[in-house]
TrEMBL record:
SUPFAM superfamilies: Periplasmic binding protein-like I
Protein name in UniProt: Extracellular calcium-sensing receptor-like
GO molecular-function terms, A-Z: G protein-coupled receptor activity
Species lineage: Eukaryota, Metazoa, Chordata, Craniata, Vertebrata
InterPro entries: ANF_lig-bd_rcpt, GPCR_3, GPCR_3_9-Cys_dom, GPCR_3_9-Cys_sf, GPCR_3_C, GPCR_3_Ca_sens_rcpt-rel, GPCR_3_CS, GPCR_3_vmron_rcpt_2
Localization: Cell membrane
Gene3D superfamilies membership: 3.40.50.2300, GPCR, family 3, nine cysteines domain
Record organism: Pundamilia nyererei
A GO cellular component entry from the record: plasma membrane
Topology class, membrane: Multi-pass membrane protein
Keywords linked to the UniProt accession: Cell membrane, G-protein coupled receptor, Glycoprotein, Membrane, Receptor, Signal, Transducer, Transmembrane, Transmembrane helix
Similarity field: Belongs to the G-protein coupled receptor 3 family.
Residues passing through the membrane, by range: 503-529, 541-563, 575-598, 618-637, 657-678, 690-710, 722-745
Domain G-protein coupled receptors family 3 profile as annotated: residue spans: 504-759
Length: 759
């Protein structure tokens, strides 16, 4: 501050008619002392008995114009970052060159989110600074899906009990990433206790108050390796400052106890007539050797003369220039064009505090090439360097800039260069999450009563997928697709139908072809032996018709195999229903003719006139016509069962389908009745036992069909259909025609009129 005031006073282009002076009071890192010093300055009563000392954190900088009391300037702060101070209703005259913690908190929330640290510990010293900062962080972190594993405050003077409480919280938490809002003195106490407990593997995130505190590295470098944190803007250099600091000599130290103490501690000697009364070392202060007067600050390293991290110093530099430029603007005011009532101006040598504040709030100047201006709350535009604590080859601390946060940049305020970051453990950032990320194929399910970062990963159900990490919901697959095993991709469903190429399809196909060929073969036999007594004794027309439709019934089975199509579905059930109705109608008519033929031999019986060829054809057509009336079309549908699309034909009407089966059952009952009535006919004409046996098989097949049909699905339903059709057709074929073929082909001696006519 004194350097900057000296620099301004030496300029001819800035405040040429005014000289700046100053009073410095030490806060002593103690709140009562700090309040006393602040009140003395604000009230314009510099305490002559109060030592002119150093300035420390949250020090209030004061300047005044020539012959103007200190009460003329209210508050230009260079290191107070508490967001509470942005409240202009409570602090209307407050300004600062330090960014508000509001911006630092946004940067910290983005930082932890960037590295995937969604489960962090947050600690801070008992102060408005930490309380407001942590409150803001808890609010801001929600927007980035970040949760606090714990929040803990510890006193400014950290007792052993307070350290134990704090370290127990840290040690037993699952979070290994810790944000600490404190100064370096509190951090030193915490690090000592961590070393004593041999705790390792912690990732520290420093607030701007200790992000560049090199003094912490000397004893705790191993613990702080990989620390990241935001530091306020750094000035590359302040021309002349290094020379100003190192120009201090022993002869100029007697005016300040602070400077005397600094000199004696640095060179381990005692000044003659020193105002200093205590020592920071363990040795006896009064046993030190007298200073020689030849000591030179250029010969030793000291934080005092270290100008590599000009951050707080740069804030002070800008704060002094802010007052200077405000005074310049106030002095340059033209009467009649001033900012106050009726265009008036302030008197540069007798102005009111609120008049200077007006110019300070509207200040817009450059300092070392940086544009300096303020928002409506008196806060500067925030800019932070992201610093990484790295170990240099010689073991010393190397503060490396690995990114920055610039609030003036729209959208992407935080920029990070990951490749240059060194981490506490290995080459990658440690993981700190309450729950691991849910991989694709699962969804997030929040745990009741716990923070949003704590959740379980539940696999998507069948037919649903998630293809992103941490999906909140699983999405349904389309109708023609289904979820894969990993539940992260919808894949085409497998089409299922009874194929010609699978064993069941081949077997049923062979059986259908065999049945049809056998029917045609029997027709051929009957045609070849049409003049034999056995063939002539049967109703040839009805027999041929029955055999023809049995062949069709066998071929109907083929329609149920293979990929179903709309036109196949439209004819499957009507072919099936009509064919069986014709077969059983023929059998019924044939049995009735034989039965009536023997009954007509009774005297005065004219029954046979109703059972001629025309009447037989009519009865067959009538029996089939009834079936045609109740037939229902079948339709092609796609049933979705898991990862399979089942293509199948189903009846257009369930009532119609069961009516078809019911009518066939009625015809079969009629055949069974006719067979029962014909049981006493001569054996050679009596087919009753064969018809009865075939009908019993027919009933057994279709009664069994009903529960099996209802309980099966997909291609197995089709197989049941085909089996029922083939079994019924084979029953009729084998029971009625095979015995006749046996006699015709193997026992020709029985195929004569004499054998047929005898009982």
């Amino acid at each position: 501050m004194t350097f900057t005031i000296k620099e301004i006073n030496g300029r001819s282009d800035l405040l040429p008619h005014l000289k700046l002076g100053f009073h410095i009071h030490d806060s002593c890192d103690d709140i009562p002392v700090s309040l006393r010093a602040s009140l003395l300055l604000v009230n314009g009563q510099p305490d002559k008995g109060f030592r002119a000392e150093s300035f420390y954190r949250d020090k209030v900088l004061k300047t005044n114009g020539y012959n103007v009391g200190c009460d003329a300037v209210r508050q230009t702060v260079y290191f107070a970052s508490c967001s509470c101070l942005s409240n202009q209703r409570e602090f209307p005259t407050f300004m600062r060159t330090m960014p508000s913690d509001t911006f630092q908190i946004r940067a910290l929330a983005q930082l932890v989110s960037y590295f995937g640290w969604t489960w962090v510990g947050v600690i801070g010293v008992e102060s408005d600074y930490a309380h407001f900062a942590i409150q803001l962080f808890l609010q801001e972190s929600v927007h980035y899906g970040v949760c606090a594993a714990y929040t803990h405050f510890y006193p400014v003077v950290v007792s052993q009990q307070a350290l134990d409480d704090l370290l127990n919280v840290i040690q037993f938490s699952s979070s290994k990433v810790i944000i600490n809002f404190s100064g370096e003195s509190e951090m030193q106490s915490i690090l000592r206790e961590i070393m004593r407990r041999n705790m390792t593997g912690l990732q520290w995130i420093a607030s701007e108050a200790w992000a560049t505190a090199k003094s912490l590295w000397e004893k705790s470098g191993d613990l702080l390796m990989g620390t990241v944190g935001f530091a306020i803007r750094r000035a590359a250099t302040i021309p002349g400052l290094k020379q100003h600091l190192t120009s201090l000599t022993a002869s100029s130290l007697h005016k300040s106890a602070f400077l005397a103490e600094f000199w004696e501690e640095t060179f381990d000697c005692r000044l003659n007539g020193s105002l200093n009364t205590h020592s920071h070392g363990s040795d006896n202060f009064f046993d030190r050797q007298p200073c020689k007067g030849t000591e030179d600050l250029n010969d030793v390293y000291s934080p005092y003369s270290d100008v590599t991290q000009l951050r707080v110093s740069y804030n002070i530099y800008k704060a002094v220039y802010l007052v200077a430029y405000a005074l310049q603007d106030l002095s340059n005011c033209k009467v009649g064009k001033g900012p106050f009532l009726n265009g008036t101006c302030a008197d540069p040598k007798n102005f009111k505090p609120w008049q200077l504040i007006h110019y300070m709030k509207h200040a817009n100047f450059s300092a070392l090439g940086e544009k300096v201006n303020f928002d409506q709350n008196g806060d500067p535009i925030a800019y932070y360097d992201l610093m990484n604590w790295q170990r240099a080859p010689d073991g010393s601390l190397n503060l490396v800039k690995v990114g920055f946060y610039d609030a003036s940049l729209p959208g992407h305020s935080l920029v990070i260069n990951d490749s240059v970051i060194q981490w506490p453990l290995g080459k990658k950032a440690i993981q700190s999450v309450c729950s691991s990320s849910c991989p694709p194929g699962t969804r997030v399910v929040r745990r009741k009563g716990e923070p949003i970062c704590c959740y379980d990963c539940v696999p998507c159900t069948e037919g649903e997928v998630s293809n992103k990490t941490d999906s909140l919901e699983c999405s349904h697959c389309s109708a023609d697709t289904w979820s894969n095993t990993a539940r992260n991709l919808c894949i085409p469903r497998t089409t299922e139908y009874l194929s010609y190429y699978e064993f069941m399809g081949i077997l049923l196909c062979v059986a259908s072809v065999f049945g049809a060929c056998l029917s045609l073969f029997i027709i051929t036999i009957f045609i070849s032996f049409k003049d034999t007594p056995l063939v002539r004794a049967n109703n040839m027309e009805l027999s041929f018709l029955l055999l023809a439709f049995l062949a069709i019934c066998f071929l109907v089975g083929l329609l149920f195999i293979g990929v179903p199509s709309d036109w196949l579905c439209r004819i499957r059930y009507p072919a099936f229903g009509i064919s069986f109705a014709l077969c059983i109608s023929c059998l019924l008519a044939k049995t009735a003719v034989v039965l009536m033929a023997f009954r007509s031999t009774l005297p005065r019986s004219n029954v046979m006139k109703w059972f001629g060829s025309n009447q037989q054809r009519a009865s067959v057509l009538l029996g089939t016509a009834v079936q045609v009336e109740i037939l229902t079309l079948s339709i092609l549908i796609h049933n979705y069962h898991g990862a399979t699309i089942i293509k199948e034909c189903v009846p257009g009407s369930e009532v119609g389908f069961w009516s078809v089966l019911g009518y066939i059952g009625i015809l079969a009952c009629g055949c069974l009745l006719m067979a029962f009535l014909a049981r006493n006919l001569p054996d050679n004409f009596n087919e009753a036992k064969f018809i009865a046996f075939s009908m019993l098989i027919f009933f057994a097949v279709w009664i069994t069909f009903i529960p099996v049909y209802v309980s099966t699905a997909g291609k197995y339903t089709v197989a049941v259909h085909i089996f029922a059709i083939l079994a019924s057709a084979f029953a009729l074929l084998f029971c009625i025609f095979v015995p006749k073929c046996y006699i015709i082909l193997l026992r020709p001696e029985r195929n004569c009129k004499k054998k047929i006519m005898q009982r």
